[in-house]
Amino acid sequence: MVERMGISVAVTGASGYAGGELLRLLAGHPDFEVRRVTGASSAGTPLVQSQPHLVGSPGASALTLEATDPARLAEADLVFLALPHGQSAAIAAELPDSTVVVDLGADFRLADPDAWASYYGGTHAGSWPYGLPELPGQRAALQGARRIAAPGCYPTSVALGLAPLLAAGLVEPDDVVVVAASGTSGAGRAPKQNLLGSEVMGAVSAYSAGGVHRHTPEMEQSLSAAAGTRVTLGFTPLLAPMARGILATTTARLRPGATAAQLRAALATAYDSEPFVHLLPEGSWPSTASTLGSNSAHVQVAADEHVGRAVVTVALDNLCKGAAGQAVQCANLAFGLPETTGLSALGVAP
Amino acid sequence: MVERMGISVAVTGASGYAGGELLRLLAGHPDFEVRRVTGASSAGTPLVQSQPHLVGSPGASALTLEATDPARLAEADLVFLALPHGQSAAIAAELPDSTVVVDLGADFRLADPDAWASYYGGTHAGSWPYGLPELPGQRAALQGARRIAAPGCYPTSVALGLAPLLAAGLVEPDDVVVVAASGTSGAGRAPKQNLLGSEVMGAVSAYSAGGVHRHTPEMEQSLSAAAGTRVTLGFTPLLAPMARGILATTTARLRPGATAAQLRAALATAYDSEPFVHLLPEGSWPSTASTLGSNSAHVQVAADEHVGRAVVTVALDNLCKGAAGQAVQCANLAFGLPETTGLSALGVAP
Amino acid sequence: MVERMGISVAVTGASGYAGGELLRLLAGHPDFEVRRVTGASSAGTPLVQSQPHLVGSPGASALTLEATDPARLAEADLVFLALPHGQSAAIAAELPDSTVVVDLGADFRLADPDAWASYYGGTHAGSWPYGLPELPGQRAALQGARRIAAPGCYPTSVALGLAPLLAAGLVEPDDVVVVAASGTSGAGRAPKQNLLGSEVMGAVSAYSAGGVHRHTPEMEQSLSAAAGTRVTLGFTPLLAPMARGILATTTARLRPGATAAQLRAALATAYDSEPFVHLLPEGSWPSTASTLGSNSAHVQVAADEHVGRAVVTVALDNLCKGAAGQAVQCANLAFGLPETTGLSALGVAP
Amino acid sequence: MVERMGISVAVTGASGYAGGELLRLLAGHPDFEVRRVTGASSAGTPLVQSQPHLVGSPGASALTLEATDPARLAEADLVFLALPHGQSAAIAAELPDSTVVVDLGADFRLADPDAWASYYGGTHAGSWPYGLPELPGQRAALQGARRIAAPGCYPTSVALGLAPLLAAGLVEPDDVVVVAASGTSGAGRAPKQNLLGSEVMGAVSAYSAGGVHRHTPEMEQSLSAAAGTRVTLGFTPLLAPMARGILATTTARLRPGATAAQLRAALATAYDSEPFVHLLPEGSWPSTASTLGSNSAHVQVAADEHVGRAVVTVALDNLCKGAAGQAVQCANLAFGLPETTGLSALGVAP
Questions:
Q1: What sequence ranges are listed for the domain Semialdehyde dehydrogenase NAD-binding (chains A, B, C, D) (predicted)?
Q2: What is the C-alpha separation between B103 and B99, in angstroms, rounded?
Q3: Among chain C residues, CA nearest to B285
Q4: Which residue among A91, A192, B216, B253 is the one 20 to 30 A from B339 at the CA level?
Q5: With a cut of 50, which residues of chain B have pLDDT below it?
Q6: Which residues of A touch D27 (CB under 8 A)?
Q7: Mean pLDDT of all residues belonging to chain D
Q8: In Å, how far is C127's CA from the nearest CA of chain B?
Q9: pTM of this prediction?
Q10: Cβ contacts of D105 within 8 Å, gap of 6 or more
């Protein structure tokens, strides 16, 4: 047996959906050992009562949810913060610099204080290395990092699709149009009437349209970095009748002379050696179902000559590659482990 | 009791989804009496075997599916053609000019033979009055008409949302971007592996992206008429895990100075007196569930100042306002009946 | 035009699911006019904000939710109570005897105070005529009634399937086994984590198994009346991933010599002249989808010779024939209107 | 690194649902290497075209579907047969005795030729060791076996729930009543109208009721072995609107004096040391969602004193513990590998 690193892990927000997915992945991770789980409202109850899908895990079955106490989190080598935005900064401030902290919330994603102020409000906590290893040059920034801001689910799907086309100069950076449909788990586990099964089953609905969604500046930040110039986009999110998955459709005006072959080549170059991002064969379009429960993103592209736009579609699991899986992928990089440790690239389908 | 017109009706394609919805609506229509139903593959079998939701209708329960014989269809005052495209023209040619014929297929929707040739191929059958009464000036063209081309489901959702904004000169006619999610019934009832419940449940997927979907020229035709100039658009359809419903997101660049209030006013002016198209209150976004089984379309609009685009979202039931309900609405106009006869504006929700 | 009775109606619990379905049906009812809607938590807000599927109804769009004030309810000719159990009795006590009151809650369904005490607890409010017209002799009890207890959704599905077999002496009254799957709307609209779309989509789960569900004594009461002897049953409810619908499977031991033909004949005799309950053709099995949004129940039966049990399956829409539709059907009887007024027997399918 | 056995594997029926799940599991199995995949109708096409969820697997991406040729299958150390019933026997006959063959079909499950004849018809192929290791004494029969008949999905769920209660003499062996709801993948991938997403979404329906379902004798065989006497049961299957999962409700009459505590103790004794079968804590009921994509079964039991019946509910994933996962578990036993190799006990939820 290989010598395994016994890395102790703490997970906050363990009673939520991202927390539940993190714990599912960590239960199968050979090097990370979950020692502590916290969940404000459920403190004192067995973890499996909140997360019955973990009942088959001897480790998870032995855990009890605690209140979130930074002093006790500090005992861990690795801390995942899966909390509503605005709660991570105070906790992170009390953790040793040597602790690896991966924040699944928004607090440390944006470098621009003005963007934070206008979309989230309140004080800007600062920014950490952005945990999307497949972006140009980003992997190096994550290897050995002690603080990592895991990306949002929508921004991951949009950045993976469009960044290579912008970096290759094949599409215009302004007037990008994004419409992305998400499963309901992206809206969290707090009970709300509009998220009841009775309301969402059989329904596709729009929300936060008109450029007000908080993921907009995060998308623009990633894409601007890839383009080397300011990218602006309009984003319309949709709620779809499924628990998991995002299907993002991103269109951008083609640069003069850009061809479908060039679009395809740019994505192939970016992803052919990536373990988790896959450009689909021509004629095959992404479906969220093919990525369910996996850390994969499926990408396809077309050139709409009729209106002169590139159309990129990306499917991924919002809780896995869009949240928990990506966080584990980043933690692997932080500890120098093989990037795919404990993660699957295969969807549970049908 | 008012004197009722005993209008005899024949429905072709009665074993399909649009046919089944037509028969559900017609069973509750006080003036239309279905005398004949045809369905190629199921000829000779009881209608309710193919359409068990009609078992509670004495009339429908007494009907047997027949082969499609124009000579027998000619006995009806009103014929609905719910057939795959390419099959309507030959049948229509054998029906008397005095028969009211409403075609739910694509054959007679496009005025431009070149558009037909490039998107459908084969011979162009010609064009009939376009059955979308809520379009500017269109209602008059349908009153008393003997031949009507009922619109496609996607084009209905896009035209209802954008036409008033184009007519009011508030948005640019070029570079319109449409992403619309449809329920699976829009793909028809012929068994295909990619439409199996196991494949579509829990899945949102893209298809026919890149400007190749056949509804593209139909959308452009309606919108160009409303704009008074050539409109071009890029259309990406999505398949969503629900049986019915379309949620269309259409964005167009704002004309200089156009405001959110102007966008809203243009839609309010267009629809405040319409029985089936409803501009939602501010802050409320359309959901397909609220229109299920109804002939309604729900509309909402926003101005995305950040990128200078109008964002219109429209929800409707693809089988009702997007197909069978619209066809009945048009038939009511053709016979001079109240336009809402036999139709409901209220969705079955939750 | 026929002379219509202008019957004024008040609906309590109008912001819930049963209330929303009641208002959808009442908007299309030619004799009932909704003048007042109440909803505790949403008092003061427009009805359509809670029930967006009603936005197409001029009448419903003009209504504002009020607090529930018996004095104001008393102004109505007809009052529907769609409240959690335990709340109806106090309100009903303040309404004039001349007012027709239909309670969709459980308060007045059980005749046996002990059954009430053991399953619901607290004081027994008494019992009203049971609003299931298709039960033997029950229709007469509802014609002209001023107080009606509308049945529960599960009990409706079980009684319609088994009562005729018990009345005909074809099955044994003891050891009846019921397993019924319900859509999530049966659990109400109050936000709960276990009812979130993310939890219920893709999931069938059991709950309240082991004979503890409150609908058990109500089922036994109806079936005992039909059998003329004490009927006991074991009931296991399931939650299914759909908003609406109940599929009930009820099995009972066959009396010696009872045949499949006799089972079928008993159901045919009971329902062949009923407008809303339909025995399906042999070889066809009930599906909840075929009854969606309708007041119908679809019934099928088989004799399992292998174990000597009758197997009856019944599909209906828990919010319509299982709640609001049944309530309107009963109100029609109370006012001497045609029983089917304002109701459809056809499901919205697919 | 541990020394790994390089066991070569062939999978027939690789283009179906069970085949796709097998390949997902095998891609993550450290000792089994898939060298050959066959699929009659898709022979010559890339595997990932039929199974897009495998696109992230370098191994699976390199495979092409072949026609099923026993001579080439014989090159493998391990052959999984995932074929419609009736096709396995002829192929198995041509494979060396030394090859480990796991049949996911029904051909070799039944020991009684009469049961085969009456439920399947045609010649009885014989019987192989039954691949449900958690049944009393069954594990030993599978260790080192060269031929294994993997159980059906429904029989697995029923046997796991009731066998321990029968073995402990707590319930009567006659008049067992089973109602089980399955996701649509259990009906296979061949396109059929009644399995279209449009037909199954929003619908629970019954089928094959009245004791005619082919899994009935298989259930009785397992349960009779556990009871040590003849067990008879009535089985009603339901189709539920989800791709995967079975929720089985099994009730049996309690033996005099049998208590809820005894029922619970019998299941705890049977499963406390099992890696894949889990008795849930009291008050928690099984949900198929908690087992999605895992090889787990979740079990709960109650004593319905009211009618004197035990009620056992079991949730599992019909494609994993109900088919492919169980097959891999059995193959691990055949090769003397740790039984859990390559399998997860944790569901993908929500």
A1: 8-143
A2: 12
A3: C52
A4: B216
A5: 1
A6: 346
A7: 96
A8: 30
A9: 0.97
A10: D81, D82, D83, D84, D85, D86, D87, D88
Query: Is B318:B185 a contact under the CB 8 Å cutoff?
Result: yes
3 state SS of D18: helix
Closest CA to D19 of D59, D47, D61: D47
Q: For position C262, what pLDDT does the model report?
A: 98
Contact C311 D234 (CB under 8 A): yes
- Please give the structure tokens belonging to residue A190: 């707090």
Backbone angles phi, psi at C213, to 5 degrees: -65, 140
Cβ atoms of D335 and D303 within 8 Å: the answer is no
Of C206, C216, C307, the CB nearest to D175: C307
pLDDT in tens, A137-148: 999 999 999 999
The DSSP annotation for C271-290 comes to: HTT-SSEEEPPTT---BGGG
Strand intervals (E) in chain C: 7-12, 32-38, 65-66, 78-81, 100-103, 147-149, 176-182, 205-206, 233-239, 246-253, 277-279, 297-304, 309-316
Tokens of A222: 């990633």
Write out the two tokens for D305. Answer: 């004193």
For B150-202, how does the pLDDT look when each residue is reduced to its tens digit (9 = 90+)?
A: 999 999 999 999 999 999 999 999 999 999 999 999 999 999 999 999 999 99
D22: nearest Cα among D342, D278, D345: D342
Residue A285 DSSP SS3: coil
CATH of region A7-128: 3.40.50.720
What ipTM, to 2 d.p.?
0.96
Dist. CA D226–CA D162, nearest whole Å: 9
- Taking CB atoms and an 8 Å limit, are C280 and B28 in contact across chains? no
Q: Give the single-character DSSP code of D36.
A: E
- Which residues, 6 or more positions from B101, have their beta carbon under 8 angstroms from its beta carbon? B78, B79, B81, B92, B95, B146, B147, B148
pLDDT number for residue A40: 81
Identity of residue D209: A
Give the residue from B308, B215, B301, B315 showing the smallest Cα distance to B258.
Answer: B308
Reading the block at residue B316, the tokens are 């409707």
Domain map (residue ranges) of chain D? 7-128, 154-318
Chains that touch A (3 or more CB pairs under 8 A): B, C, D
Cβ-Cβ contacts under 8 Å for B84 (sequence gap 6 or more): B105, B188
Establish whether the linkage from the previous residue to D350 is cis, with ω within 30° of 0: yes
Respond yes or no: is residue A153 known to be catalytic: yes
- Per-residue model confidence (pLDDT) at position B2: 53
> What is the distance between the alpha carbons of residues C273 and C269, in angstroms, rounded to a whole number?
8
Chain C environment of A191 (Cβ under 8 Å):
191-193, 195-196
Task: Out of B48, B52, B290, name the one closest to residue C52 (CB).
Answer: B290
Instruction: Please choose, from the candidates C140, C142, C157, C137, the residue with its C-alpha nearest in 3D space to the C-alpha of residue C277.
Output: C157
For the domain spanning A154-318, the CATH number is 3.30.360.10
What's the rounded mean pLDDT across residues A202-219?
95
